[in-house]
Write the structure tokens for this entry.
Amino acid sequence: MKLWAGRFSKEIDKKTNDFNSSISFDSRMYREDIEGSIAHATMIGECGIIEKSESEAIVKGLEEILADIDSGKLQIDPNAEDIHTFIEGELTKRLGQTGKRLHTARSRNDQVAVDIRLYLKKEVKNIEKMVKELVSVLCDKAEQYSSTVMPGYTHLQRAQPITFGHHLMAYVEMLLRDIDRLQCTYRHMDEMPLGSGALATTTYPIDRNITASLLGFDRVSQNSLDGVSDRDFCMELASTISIIMVHLSRFSEEIIMWCSWEFKFIELDDAFSTGSSIMPQKKNPDIAELVRGKSGRVFGDLMTLLTVMKGIALAYNKDMQEDKEAIFDAVDTVKMCLTAFTPMIETMKVIPENMRKAAANGFINATDCADYLVKKGLPFRDAYKATGTLVALCIEKGLTLETLPIEEYKKVCDTFDEGVYDAISLENCVNGRKVIGGPASANVISQVERVRNLIK
């Protein structure tokens, strides 16, 4: 029986029913639907809208339904219109007329609005925990390789020396902002819409604060039209997840490059790699590639939500049923990616000697060479030109700035002396950059300590 059957003289067409149904995806909210119904039944009992004995019977019946679904004793009917209809129908089967009183002073519009908020509040906390686990792993790696010199890049060209620890901590900063965005999104969705009714509340003397307190919401929504039609929190969460996926995708791109033979800065554990069906030598970074690819899927979910909501007049419209598949998919995808990505990073083998070799061969200490002359009184532009000449000379002779004889330095600029070799030492170049945010080893250790305290 449809909840709205009284207005219609015949059954809905089966194909139309299938098209209209949401049970295939909103059934995952059965727990939240029951939690919301228990709170609502408790409230209307306390407010005297239904008899206290009926309220208690409804709560007991709902708790039994939840236990039966959890245990597998009760299977959710795939032919039900939605999870709300199924739960209420099952309650009515068990309690008869008393079960029918549950929906007093409530609409499916505010019911689904509270269900999805309850569900997503839990998922935001789950995602936040998973991001923090990744941050913790990155901090451990950064601390371990705080002194491991590697080239820093701009335009994918070797630019200046940094450490591997410093590079990893750059992603930590991104993820910290992601955590902050998750927490902000949680605050925005922590508003209880139940009691908004279909769009204009109710004439029953309900107490929405009781319901909000029972369900653990921070506050009650202040406008009933907005209460049932607000899906900002879905769009915001999808946006936040999309940014997380951008960060994971960028990181994946570097992992993919780093484990190639052209870089060979790292090697992924066998458990997080695959082989080729035809080329026996291959070890493919499939996990990183899949994470990179799945980012586009999540961006599509965000675009779906934005497009669905952009042209909807107040208040509830059936278009909004499309919110769930998109936001559920975004949530499922980011959790799946984090589940695979974190242990992949934790188990990867770092190859410091290859990073050091790439740093030495890339003339990435050229800026420090120029700065050495500036500190001796030469204008920066003159020092820059002299250093550029030295780099060209090294390329011609097959040398590096570290191995170029001092005589060659002096031919270009007689301000040079033996002290230049200390100035262009890669380790000194890195550890001399002690300003806040710099790659010095001590800075990396300090950053790790700061982040560990933050995520506690």
